[in-house]
Amino acid sequence: MKNLLSFRTISELRASGYRAISVKDEVRNNLIHKVRRREALFPGIIGYEDSVIPDLCNAVLSRHDFILLGLRGQAKSRILRALPSLLDEYIPIIKDCEINDNPFRPVCKACTDKVREHGDDVEIDWLGREQRYGEKLATPDVTMADLIGDIDPIKAAAQRLHYAHEGIIHFGIIPRTNRGIFAINELPDLQPRIQVGLFNVMQERDIQIRGFPIRIPLDVMIVYSANPEDYTNRGNIITPLKDRIGSQINTHYARTLEIGLQITAQEAWLQRDGMSVKIPYFLRQAIEQLAIEARRSEFVDQKSGVSARLTITCLENMVSNAERRAHLNGESDVTARVCDLYSALSAVIGKIELVYEGEREGVGNVAKGLLGKAIKQIFLGCFPEPYNAMKKGQNPYQQVVAWFKNDRKIDILDSMPNLDYVKLLNGISGLKELALRFLPGAGEMSPLQLAVGMEFVLDGMHQNSMLSRDEMGLVRTYSDMIKKMFSNMSREDEDDEEDA
Fold it and tell me: At what angle do helices 431-438 and 418-426 cross, to 10 degrees?
C-alpha cells in the first residue's frame, strides 16, 4: 500500500497493475478475509454474535443494501459507523473530483473533460476509508437537493456557464459519497416524496438532477436504520423503497443479564479522577435487572423500548452519588451503596415512556417500583424465598426481623461517612451472619463492601414485606413491618373518627 500511495498520475497507477472494483465487491472481499482469519468483525458490539452479525455478513456477501430495524438503544448507529472497517485502507481518485471518480472510469463532466484533454497524465489522489463514509439523519426537512444535488446559480454566474451546462450542478451528499458507504438514520422520518427520489439510486445506481439529460452512474452502498414502523408515528417506509432494500436485519436488546452487564461496563464512564471506585456486583446486577423489569412492565410503552442508555447512565449516576459523598466526607474510597441506586433514578425517569396506567401512577413512582422489583429479583437469586423458608420451619430472617421489634429502627443517611455506616449496620443482630451465609463472595469483601451487602439484605427484606422502609429526603428508615401496619391502621381510624 505504501508503494501505491506514491503513485501520482493515472499512467503510474495503470502501470502498477492496480485494479479498481465496486465498493460492494470491496466490502465483500475484505469481509471474507476477516472471516477466514477469524478477526472480530464489529469490535465493541456485544450480544449479537449469534443473531445480528451473521445476518449482516449474509447481506454483505450478497452485495445487498440493507436496513437495521430495531428499537432505540440497540447499537444500530454504532454498527453502521463500523462498516468503514470493511473498506480498503485507501483508494485512488482523480484529484479534486467532487464525487471521488475512478481514475480509469470517470463519470462527472469535469473529470471526463480533464481525462479527454490530458489523458493518463491526469493527477490522482488517495482517499482514506473514513472519508468514504457519509451519514445523514433523516428529518422531515431533508430535501432532494441535500441528498442528490441541485443547480447552483452562483457557480453558473462565477464560471459564466449557461444553465444547460453540467458544470453548474452542486452535488448532494450521496454523490459525494460515491465509491463509499452512505447511511440514512431513522429512515421513516424522511418524507415519502424524498424516499421516492431514492428509487433510481437503489435500483439503477444513477442520479438525475433537475431534469438534466444526463445520467451519472454511482458506485455506492446504501444502508439504513429505523425503528419499527408500528412505533414510528411520524412516518413510514414506503413499500416500493422497502422492496429495493436487499436485506432487513432486526436488532434486539441484550438477551441475558450477563450480556447487559458487559455492554454497560464497556460504555459507562466510571473513572473518577484517580479515585478508587468499587461497585458491588449485586448492585450492578440490580441496574441491569431494572432495565429487564422495565422492558416487561405493564406501565411502560413497550413499542417505544427501553434503551441500553438507561443502564449506562444509571450506573454513572450511582457512582456519581457515591463520589459526591466521598468528597463531602473527605474520603478517597468511592463505594456505591443501595441508597445510591435510588439517587440514580433521575437517569431512569427520562428514558421510559409510559402508557396511560403508568402516567396515572407517575413516572417517579413507576421508576421506584421497577427498581424495587429489580432488587427483589436479585435478592431472591441469592437468598431463600421467605414464605417457603417459613413453611419449612427454617426461617433465616427471624433474628433480623426480631431485632426490629420493640420500636427499634435504623436511619441510613445518604451522606453518612463510611465508618459510621459500617458501625450502624453491624449493630443489627444477625444481619452480618445472614449476609455472610447467602451473599456470594461475602467472605472476601472488605468491611465497607460487606456493610453494603447488609444494606442490600435490608432492602431485599423490605421488598419481600418483612421490613418497613420510610423515606424522608435523603434518609431511609427501616423498621418493624407489623408495627408500621398497625400504626397506619390506627391513623386511618382516627381520620375516620374526625370525619364523622
Answer: 90
313-353 pLDDT, tens digit each:
999 999 999 999 999 999 988 999 999 999 999 999 989 99
- CATH number of this structure's domain 2-250, picked from the four choices 3.40.50.300, 1.10.600.10, 3.40.30.10, 3.40.50.1970: 3.40.50.300
CATH class of the region 387-500: mainly alpha
Model confidence over 166-178: pLDDT tens digits? 667 788 899 999 9
> What's the Cα-to-Cα distance from 480 to each of 409, 457, 465, 474, 483, rounded to whole Å?
7, 15, 10, 20, 6
Please report, to the nearest 10 degrees, the dihedral formed by the alpha carbons of residues 436, 439, 443, 444 taken in order.
-150
Cα first-last separation, the chain: 92
Query: CA 493 to CA 367: how far, in whole Å?
Result: 31
pTM value is 0.87
Q: Where are the domains of the chain?
A: 2-250, 262-382, 387-500
- Cell 469535469 sits on residue: 110
- Domain at 262-382: CATH architecture: Orthogonal Bundle (1.10)
